[in-house]
Amino acid sequence: MSISFQTKVWNLAGEGQVYLGAFMGIVLGLQIPNWPPVIAVIAILVMGFIVGSVLGLLPAALRLRWGVNELITSYMASLIILPVVNYFLAGPMKMPGAGINTTGYVNKAFVFPKILPSCDLHLGFALALVLVLMTYYFLYRTATGYSLRIYGFNEEFARYGGIGEAKCVLVAMIASGGLCGLAGITSSLGVFHGRMVEFSTYSMGWNGIAVALIARNNPFGVIPAAFLFAYILTGANLSGLLADIPPEVAQVVSAVIYYLITAQALWRIKLS
Amino acid sequence: MIFLLAVIGILFVASAFMPSYIIQGTVRMASPILLAGIGGLFSQLAGVLNIALEGLMIFSAFFSIVAAVSTGSLFWGIVIGVFSSVVLASLFASISLGLDANIFFAGLATNLFAAGFTVLLQTVLFQEKGIIHGTDLIKITEINIPIIKSIPILGTLVNGYNLFVYLSWFIAFLGYIVIYKTTFGLRLRSVGENPGAFRSIGLNPKKYQFIAILISGFTCGLAGASLSIPITAFARGMVNNRGWIGLVTIFVGGINPAGTVAASLLFGGAEETSYLLQVSSLNIPHHFIQTVPYVITLIAMVAYSIWKKSKTRIIKG
Amino acid sequence: MSIILMEGIVKTYQPNNVLANAGIDLELEEGKIHAIVGENGAGKTTLMKILYGEEQPDSGRIFIDNEKVNIPSPLVANRLGLGMVHQEFQLFPSLTTAQNIVLGAEPRKGGLFYDNKKADEIIKDISVKYSLQIEPKAIINRMTVGQKQRVEILKMLYRGARILILDEPTSVLVEQEIEALFKTLKKLADSGHTIVFITHKLGEVKTVSDIVFIMKSGRMVACRDTESVTKEDICSLMVGRRSEFFISKSPIQPGKVVLTVNNLRILEKGVKQPVLDAVTFQIRKGEIFGIAGVAGNGQADLVEALFGLRKISSGEISISGKIISGNNPKSIRACGVAYVPAERTARGSAGQACLWENIVVSNTARFKKRLFLDIPAIKLFCDDKVRSYAIKAENTSMKANTLSGGNLQKLVLSREFDGYPEFLIIEEPTRGLDVKSADFVYDRILDMRESGCAILIISSDLNEIISLSDFIGVMYRGEITIIFDNDQELSSYEIGEYMMGVRTGKVKN
Questions:
Q1: Which side of chain A, N or C, has fewer Cβ within a 10 Å radius?
Q2: Whether A64 and A121 share a structural domain
Q3: Which of A201, A223, A239 is a domain's end point?
Q4: How far is Cα C403 from Cα C414, in angstroms, rounded to an integer?
Q5: B311 touches chain A (CB under 8 A)
Q6: Rounded distance, CA C168 to CA C177, Å?
C-alpha cells in the first residue's frame, strides 16, 4: 500500500488481492502436497504474489490504455473477485464435511512454524520484516523506486524528465497488488494453519491502508504502525466487549485512524 | 440528454414486449442508485469527489429501521434515517473541508465507519448480527395513478411504484432545476471550476462544498431509507455497494443530471438482471450472479472512458 | 482631491522575513490614472493586494474619502468601491460572460432563481455605458486574452468599483489591444473613476498615466506628475533597470541545420481550428529562433510536440537528420534535446522532492550502479551545479519548494544545460525573475549559443524575444505566419500586427 500511495496510484483492490492471494496460494499448495516443503512454500508465496499483482494489473492497464479512473476500477475488480472466490470455497474447493466454508489443509510441512512456541508469532512475521527491508531499498535506493516516487510527487515533472508513466503505474500496481496477495497467503499459511477460510481475511486490505497512513507511507514506519494497529485490535478483543474480533471493529478502528491521520489541521494545531 | 432519451427509448420499446415486472424492477432498482448519484453529482460539481455515498446510505438504511422500530412509525423512521445520513455527511465534510483531510481517505473512512459502526451497534442493541426486522410495521404500498395506469406502455413505466421511486424522479428533476436555474446552482458549478476565482469575488468555496456534501447526505439518506423501509428490515451489507455504483453514474452520465438518470437506469437494469438470474430456474451459482452489477459497472466505466477519449483524440494522418 | 490614502504600510512575508513593504505612503487622486513602476520584487503587487484586502499589512493605515477603513477581504474592498484585475484572470471558463460578471451578486427571480435575461440586459447596458464591447452569452474559454480582460474590468464595474486596480494589465496583450485598453482607461477616468495600474513598461507610463509612483525594494522612492518627468528620470529613480534590453551578441556563424520541423500538424477531433497547422522551420547550430505570439496560439502545443509530450497528426521533426517525431521524452532527450519549461513548479521540478532528486530526473542512467542509484555521486554532482550556478541553497537534501523563483529557475537551467545539448527549448526564460537573475539567465543562454547549441525561445515578453533572437517567427492560430530576420529594423508594432492576425505573410527560412 505504501508503494502505491507514494506513486499516487490508488489501489483500492487490496481486499480482493489479499483474498485471492490467500486462496490461490492454498489451491496451489493442495495440488503439490509431495513437493519438498521449502520449494513448495516458495511456489505458494510466488503464486500469492502473482495473483495479487494480476488483480492490480487490470486497473493499471485500463488507466494507461483509456484513462479509466483506477480508484473505481480497482474497487470494482475487488468486488467481483470476492464472491468468485467464495463460490469456490463454498463449492468446488470446499473441504468435505466441514461446518464452515473452507478449503482443506495443505501439507503440515508447508505451514509456517511458530517462532516462539507460546504465542501466535509465526515465520510469516520474519518474512514481513524482510519484505519491509526490500521495499525500503526498492523505493529509496533503486532507479525504479526513484522514478515511482518522482511520479508520485509530480506526474508532469516525471513525464517531462523522461520517466515513463506506464512503467510507474504498472510497477506500483503490480508491487502493491503482489504484496497484498502475499499478505493474504501469509495469513493463510500462518494464522489459519494452512487453509483458506471464507471471510478470513476480510478487511485486511483496509487495515493495510490504515497502517500505511500511520506510517506516512514509509516502509520502516510500517512495522511499528502495524504493531500499533494490531495492538488496538487485540485491545478491543481483550476488553471483553466481543468474543472475537469481528471485521467491523477493525473497520471502525481503521476509519477513525484514517480520519485522525489525514486531518492535517489537527496535526498543525498540535505542532504549533 | 441524448443518452437519457436513448435509455428511456429503449425502456419504452422493451416494455412493449417484455414482462412488465422486468421493466418495473429495473426502474425500482435504479431509484436508490439515482438518489445517490444525484447527491454525488452536487458534490462533484462543487469539486468534491464524494466517495462516501456508500457509507451515507448504510447509515440511513440502518437508522431509519432502528427509528421506525422504536417509534413504530415509518415516517419518523425515514426522517431520522435521512437525518443520520446528513449528520454523517457533516462529519465527513467537517473533517475533509474543515480539518483539511485528504478527501479520498476521509471518504473511505466514512464508508468503513458506517459499515462497521452500524453492525457493532446492531450487535450491542439487538444482540443480533444478521437482520433487524420491523415485523409490526405497516409496509408502504405501491401508488396507483388513476388514469395513467390504464394506458398500456406508459402505465407500466410510470405506475405502481412505491413512494421512494417517485421521490427519486422528483429529486432528479429538482436537482436539474437547482443546478441550472438557481443562483445557488450557478455558484455551485463555479466552485468546482475555479475555487480561487470563487474566493476572489468574496464567496466562500468551502461553504458551498459543505452544502453540496450535505445535499449528498440528504439524497443518500433517502436512498438508504428506500432500501430498508419498503421491506421493513435491515441486514448488513444490504446497501451492497449501490453508493459506489451511484458514484459511477455521475461519470458515466457525463456529470449532469440527465446523464445520471440514464446511467442509473442502466445499472438498475444490471441489478434487475442479477436479481432475475437469482430467482430463475437457470442454475447459476449465486456467487457469480452477485458480480453482475459490478461487471456491468466496470464495463460501463471503461466504455465511457473509451468514448470520452475517442472524442478528444488527435486525428492521424 | 485625494480619494485614497495609505500610510506607513509595512508587510513582511514569512518564513524568510522578506520585507515586501517597508512603510509605504500612497495617495491616489480621484479621476486620475496612476501608474506604479518598479523592478520585480519592489513590492508593487503586495501593496495593491493590501489595498484590495487580499493581504493584511503588519502595520499602517488606509483611508478612503478621508475615513479610516479596515479591509479584511476583497469582499469588503468591493463594498468600499475598490476593484482589482489580477494578472491571472479570475474567471470561470465554461460559464458565459454575463454569468461571470454577475456571479456573487446575481439578479434573481423569486428569490432563488437566476435571472438569465436580466443578467444579459445588465451586461449589455454597462458594456454600452463604458463602450467595452462584449457579448453577454459568449463562453469565456473561447475568448482572447483581451476580451477576458474586458470581462474582468466589467465585473469590477458591475460591482460598483470607483477605484480600479490593474496588475500588469498590458503584459499579456499585444500593441493593438493595449491601445484599446488605454482608451478604456481614459474613458473611465473621465467618468470619475480612479485608476491605478502596475507596469514595468515606461512607455506606457508616459502614454496613459497622470501620476507615476516609483517603488524600489519595498519603498516608495518618488511620486511625480507624469508630464514633469522623462523616461530616463523614472529609470534612474528605479535604478538598475535598463530602459531597453541591451544584450551584446556576437554575429552568428551559420552552422549545420540541427532542428528541422516539416509541415507539422495537430488536428483534434471535432474541432475545426487546427491546433498546429503546417508549421515548418529550421534552426541551425549557434542560432536562436524566437517565437512571438499571443498566448494560446499554439506555442505551448508546438513545444510539447517537439518534446514528445503531445501527439501529432502529421509532419516530421528531426534533429540532425534523425527523425524524433513520435518518440517519447526519454528518447528525445537521448537525442540531445533539452527543455526549460515555463511552468517551473508544475513541470520543471517536483517541489516535495529534494534538490538532488530534482537534478537527476533526466540523468538517472548515468548514476546507476547495477540496480541501485549511486546517491553520494548524485549529491556531489548536485553540489557542483549549486556552486557553478550560484544557487542559494543550504544543502542538496533540502526540498525544491523552499527555493525562490530565481534559484529554482537556475536549478532547472543547470540540469537542462548540462552536457551541452544539441537543441534547447526555452519557454519564458525570465518570467517572474528579478533583474539580477534575469541577467544571469541571459548570459547562460548566450553561452549556450556560443557553444553551438540550436535554441528555440518562446516568450510573452516581446522585448526579450527581439533582443535575444537571430530569427523571429510569429505564431497565430497554430500557424507560423511570418519569419523575420532580426538584423533589420524591426518594430514591435509590426510584430504585433502579425500576432493579432491583422497581417499574415509568407514564411521564409
A1: C
A2: yes
A3: A201
A4: 14
A5: no
A6: 14
The confidence score (pLDDT) of residue C246 equals: 56
Residues in chain B with CB shorter than 8 Å from the CB of C91 are 194, 197
User: Could you tell me the pLDDT band of residue A100, with boundaries at 50, 70 and 90?
Assistant: confident
Smallest Cβ–Cβ distance between A153 and the set C350, C364, C373 belongs to C350
Provide the residue range defining the domain that includes A70.
Answer: 2-201
- Determine whether the interchain pair C361/A159 forms a contact, defined as Cβ–Cβ distance below 8 Å: no
Q: Do C247-336+421-509 and C2-238 have the same topology in CATH?
A: yes
Name the DSSP class of B138: P
Q: What is the model's pLDDT at position C244? A: 46
Please indicate whether, in this complex, the C-beta atoms of C95 and B312 are within 8 angstroms of each other. no
Nearest to C361 among A137, A150, A164 (CB): A150
Count of domains observed in chain A: 2
Q: Which three cell numbers stand for residue C342?
A: 515555463
Regarding whether A126 and A185 lie in a shared domain, the answer is yes
pLDDT digits (tens, 9 = 90+) for A150-177: 988 888 899 888 888 888 899 989 988 8
The C-alpha cell that represents C144 in the structure block: 482572447
B254 touches chain C (CB under 8 A): no
Q: Is the pLDDT of residue B85 over 90?
A: yes
Residues 98-127 of C with CB under 8 A from B: 99, 103-104, 106, 108, 112-114
Question: Are A176 and A255 contained in the same domain?
Answer: no
Of B194, B202, B310, the CB nearest to C104: B202
Quick one: pLDDT band at residue A232, thresholds 50, 70, 90? low
Residue C474 grid cell: 510569429
Question: Which residues have CB under 8 Å from C483's CB, separation 6+?
Answer: C281, C471, C472, C473, C474, C507, C508, C509
A271 band by pLDDT with thresholds 50, 70 and 90 = very low
- Check C86 against B200: CB less than 8 A apart: yes
Predicted-assembly ipTM surpassing the 0.90 threshold = no
A242 — pLDDT class (breaks 50, 70, 90)? very low
Residue B240 has pLDDT above 90, yes or no: no
- Cα dihedral B245/B249/B255/B256 (nearest 10): -130
Q: Is C274 helix (H, G, I), strand (E, B) or coil?
A: coil
Chains that touch C (3 or more CB pairs under 8 A): A, B
Task: Name all domains of chain B by residue range, CATH numbers in brackets.
Answer: 2-7+18-136+159-309 (1.10.3470)
Question: How high is the pLDDT of residue B297?
Answer: 86
Nearest residue on chain C to B196, alpha-carbon basis:
C90
Q: Which of A90, A257, A265 sits opposite B98 (nearest CB)?
A: A265
The full set of domain ranges for chain C reads 2-238, 247-336+421-509, 348-420
CATH class as words, domain C247-336+421-509: alpha beta
> Cell digits for C383?
553540489
